Amino acid sequence: MTRLYTESLNIGYGERHIVKNLSVKIPDKKITTIIGPNGCGKSTLLKAITRIISQQSGTVVLDGKDISKVNTKLLAKKMAILPQTPESASGLTVGELVSYGRFPYQSGFGRLTKKDYEVIEWALDVTGTADFKFHPVDALSGGQRQRVWIAMALAQETDIIFLDEPTTYLDMAHQLEVLELLQKLNKEQERTIIMVLHDLNQAARFADYIIALKDGEVVKAGTCEEVITRDVLRKVFQIDAEIGRDPRTNKPMCITYNLIKGDYKHEKTAVPVYSAVSVNY
């Protein structure tokens, strides 16, 4: 039984339809990556699945229940989300920010219990941010801040974690650091990870399952081998890609590509890409 899936999901803003009749299943205890050009509905889909926004029609089902009918605190104990641009943590220390992840478990005056403090310490430790506990969040580097936000999500003690472009604005080393942390959480703690990524090779390297969107619809969903193909990338991004194999993981990777303009057989613009491909229009 699949814990999390959508049925005939339609999402829009006013007259504009972003996601159209979308039905997807999220594999349990796996890393799922959503790819697609800007404006195709990736972030909108994440927001609807996590109930940040409402859909026009269709259903999001978690553990056999329509999430629109699930108590907010109960839902927050099952899924956490790290948005594309987290809210400002100005004036907060690392420990204070991570403690916010315990909100779903608090009652009465909202005082932290012994259990809360234990979970906070664990989240700081597993993300390698314990040394920054009393540091202002604003004083940290981009990679350190991202790990702290992940620690806050972990403090919610959810089985499912959503991340919207968690590597944005990070350099290559910090991108790898964050993705390896998420992979570790998946492998060692069996967390279900769902994230939006722009870098195709990062998606192929770290994901067990990929959903490729275009214009609010699924073009292809499946394993890396099924999605990172010349045909799928042509349909999704209008690129003519050369697909090879990552020598370290043996997973498919986009070695280089041409941007298709008009009739791709006669008009191409070469854009060489090597170890990483980020398709972001």
From TrEMBL:
GO terms for molecular function: ATP binding; ATP hydrolysis activity. GO terms for biological process: iron ion transport. Residues 4-240 form the ABC transporter domain. Pfam families: ABC_tran (PF00005). Its main location: membrane. CDD domains: ABC_Iron-Siderophores_B12_Hemin (cd03214). It is found in: Cell membrane. It is a peripheral membrane protein. Keywords: ATP-binding, Cell membrane, Ion transport, Iron, Iron transport, Membrane, Nucleotide-binding, Transport. InterPro entries: AAA+_ATPase, ABC_transporter-like_ATP-bd, ABC_transporter-like_CS, P-loop_NTPase, Siderophore_ABC-ATPase. One of its GO terms (cellular component) is plasma membrane. This is ABC transporter ATP-binding protein.
